[in-house]
Amino acid sequence: MYISQPMSWHKVSHDSDEEYQSTANEASLGSAPEAASEGIEKAVADTGDLTTEPMAFLQGLNSGNLMQFSQQSVLREMILQDIQAQVSTLPKIEKHNTGGYNFSFDLVEPPKSDWTVSKTLNKLYIRMNKVFNVDIQFKARMPIQPLNLRVFLCFVKDVSGPVLRCQNHLSVEPLTDHNEKERENLLRCLNPNTIYCGTAQGKGISERYSVLVPLNVSRSGSRSGGYVRQTLAFNFVCQNSCFGRKESCLVFCLENASGDIVGQDYLNVKVCTCPKRDHKQEERQKGALKRKIHESDTEEDDTEDHPPKSRRLAESMHIKEETASNDSYNATHRGLPQNWDVSQTDNGKYQLSITVPNKEWLLDSIEGMVKEAATKVLRSPNKDRLRSYAQSLLKLKKRAYELP
């Protein structure tokens, strides 16, 4: 590209022209703003009195220097803004492969393990301090470039809230000169090259507590279709109950050397004392809730032709009450076990008192009422009485759990 030099309106010596031209060329050859800046400073120093030779100074600062300095400054500002935007980006609970690496992971549950996986709920149930293996897989791309895997915990309903360890479990782990970030991190990775990142105040992806694991991108082969496979081992050092039983998930980010996320996946997580029990219970709850919603929609469509079962049962009981005598009613209820009773209150509600043989029956009974209340709340979310009734049932369920 040819850049014409501005013509001088004053007489300038031949030596000065060559010196200014040499300075301008040296500045234009630099690739960084510092090179252009040094050329400008040298030109200013060599011009002496700017008031007497203004055009000679401008001749030294040719248009190429000024354009290059301006473009480099703008480019540097754009790069800094882009880096700052990546650092402060809040995590998103989603799956994507923007880099074309076909990134994915898999968990194979071994027999008699301390954890279990629900494919239906995409959820891991595991006990604290127990190790689980994750098989990472991505497609090798040319040219080969280094990739890292960043893994961190995130609240499902509050992605900006950092997931921190509780003080009870934190206090039992001694603090040393080398384990400060690892000690604060709720997630641990057993890979020896793991880097522990983040701070307690971090909300963005690269600012929050996370583990960064360099991946071995050379472990690809033709038999596996050009895919890189690597197994990583993780464990948790706190439970969900430590941070208020909030729903949490594990986010996996495949990053390149610049920190750009080129692939992402996630897994819901519950760290608890009884993984298999909670696994079965939550799958059963979801299945029952789906059936309730489906049945309620069907009942609303066929109400006129087919009255609900509860209404038919109430009508049948009402007819029997009109034809039955008090003697027969008392005789029917003499065979009930002690402390078993059903009655109606003054405000038209009903009371039930029974005795069950074990805790499991008690929890199942309360769970049935919780599901029924949840269905009613979903259908009528603005009714405060229903919501209050559902909350009371949840408190009752919690109290039942605490029983020996």
Characterise this structure.
The protein has 404 residues and is an alpha+beta fold. The protein has helices spanning 14-29, 33-47, 54-60, 63-87, 167-171, 180-184, 275-301, 309-323, 326-333, 359-379, 384-401, and strands spanning 104-106, 115-118, 123-126, 132-139, 147-155, 187-189, 195-197, 210-214, 227-236, 248-256, 261-271, 341-344, 350-353. Strands 2-3-11-10-5-8-7 form a seven-stranded mixed beta sheet. Strands 1-4-9-6 form a four-stranded antiparallel beta sheet, with no helix packed on it. α10 (359-379) packs antiparallel against α11. The longest helix is centred in the C-terminal third of the chain and has 27 residues, at 275-301. 18% of the residues are buried. Mean pLDDT is 76; it is low at 1-14, 23-33, 47-52, 83-87 and 321-333.
* Uncertain parts: 1-14, 23-33, 47-52, 83-87, 321-333
C-alpha-based Rg, rounded: 36 Å
What's the N-to-C terminus distance? 86 Å
- Mean pLDDT, to the nearest integer, reads 76
The shape is elongated
Main sheet: strand order: 2-3-11-10-5-8-7
Tell me about the largest β-sheet: 7 strands, mixed
Number of discrete helical segments = 11
* β-sheet strand percentage: 15-25%
Q: Percentage of helical residues?
A: 40-55%
Which sequence of SSEs, written as H and E, runs from N to C? HHHHEEEEEHHEEEEEEHHHEEHH
Structure classification: alpha+beta
Task: Please give the number of β-strands.
Answer: 13
